[in-house]
Amino acid sequence: MKKRIIVSSFVSFIVLESLNATEVRLDEVKITTATKTEKSIDGVSASTVIITKEDIEKVGATTIGEVLEKVPSINVQLGRFPHPSSASKGSVSIRGVSPNGTLILLDGKRLSGETEQPYEMNRIPTSMIERIEIVKGSMSTLYGSDAIGGVINIITKRDLKDRNYTTIDLKYGSNAYSKARQKNANFTTMGNIDGYKYKVYASTLDTSSFKKDKNYSQKVINPQNGTPIPQHSQNGKSGVLGVSYGDSSTLNSVGVALEKNVTDSLTLGADVNYFNEDREGDYIGSSQQIGQNGMVLNTPINSKDKNHRYDSSIFVKYDISDDLSTTLRYYTSIYKKRNETKAINFDSAVSKKFSANVRIDDVESITTYSLNNSNLLTFGLDYRKERRDSAAINKNPQSSEFVRKEIEYKAIYLQDEIEFTDSLNATVGVRYDDISNANNKTTFQAGVVQKLGENNKIRANFSQGYRSPDIAELYVVSPLYKDGKRYGADVIFPPFKTNSYDLKPEESNSYEIAYENNFNGFISEFVIFRTDIKNKIDLKAYGTGGTKYYTSENLDKVNINGLELNLDYKFTNSFESSFNLTYLDTKDKSTNKELTFTPSISAALNLSYKIIEPLKSNINIRYIGKQYEDAQNKEKIDDYTLVDLGLSYDINKIFTLYGGVDNIFNQKVDTNADINVGTYYFAGVKARF
Question: Contact at 8 Å (CB) between 402 and 389?
């Protein structure tokens, strides 16, 4: 028997834990991301998705990307960072807001890395995850910049029980042509020894490249003025390259966490996480032949990455009284990226321009005070410093010397959770941010939840958001991006730009109203939402041929309207179903064009059936509608439907076998929309003891 969780957006593969639906009330499910306090999901006014560890195990997912691509209203897009390898990386966008507006947290902490976080989808092993909390709509009142579209908080396992236990998980998969192979091994042990709560995990993930043939025709230009050099020895050469749509990679992760209740009132904790990563792929890019003048465009290149990240944090929680408690936390995230890019067809210099050192330091204080039986106040102070040393922001496009840029954020926020009656509650919050590279900003949020008897509920939410320009949008200098070059808004580099552009922060107002009904175990929810974005940051193209370049500019106004329908029904203790339909209407009001990579319609159907007691099956069907890939709305990507099958068999209380087939019918997907390796088979074994 299972516990049912309904949230404002259907999680297409949600697994309901082993409790009877009639014995467990919805308000017993707790969430922390929406208010930074442990709150009943039944009283949260914002749209929220909870993905449990059982959900993840059910589909046999290895990485976060494999989980999130099956969550409706979340679009997995290809990366937009200015390197040819963006074709094999993914970013996530919530409800049509750009990937830069989705804040990804690990245990509530930001991660240093690439702009738009394209690698993170494959860096966090699912074996270490307790649950994923997704809050849709702006969360800037609690989290500041970058949360204009929503927050994805990945919460790792941290068992607080006295029992010690260990899990080992081994998995192998490949597509139907024995390509895109994936080997994964995970180890986790946790428990409590003499009052010290501990967790140790280790993971290794090895993938082989998935490639598709692509024609290329080389062109040589003068990099200073863009004029063609037809007499160059490499000009006009053409051929076919197997372009990587998924790097060959090896990723090793390890982490340790400790927590101790020093007294009944005082708790101390610390954790350390480390990973190293090797990646390699072949792409169509640009390079300069040694001993020759001119830049060779549209030529095969090889890209290699050696990346490392070190994360650490400490916290102190002190319960001053039953009504008053405070938590102080410091964390740092240090990322080192070393990229080498070299031509394949000719002898070229090794470009290290896309290497970087990135560091985030954050100190946050959160105090909660129960003013009375009806008001819970949360007061927070936050200081964050982000530093990026990179050659990609060096104004000299030929230089690999690092240039440093820093941004400081100082914030203060206050939130009040109000319980007017047993059936009516509200949440109100306000935040003030002082930002070193943008104007100071105040944001406001208010939401209300009204229960209409035992089986009905209505909720409404309003929230403001903002996002200050990131370092790439302001300062990047890339010799090749798509069919031209790319420059940050603050870069002055004639003849492509003659003056800098005053890039303003994005600002948004989000509105949402939802109605939920539970009738004899049939749960339905209908959500209407709207997001108005002012000064949305997007890329704009200028020039033609060798003088073409892209730069970041503000769109005057963008409107996003949407509907979500969620249905959930348990036919028997062995058979249950879930369905979601999401509609998006996006519009750039200055051009009256739709936003790119925002399908108008997406839908998902999930069917779970327990064949016999130890054998479970799961079928997931996802439909992604047509979407534009260009801002001019000239090229539309076809719609597609993917069908996945998962099976698991409990041999005994210790061992479980699992496996499945993704994309059973080998549906072809446009590589401009998503990375798809065709029919994919996987199998694994998990041990718990």
Answer: yes
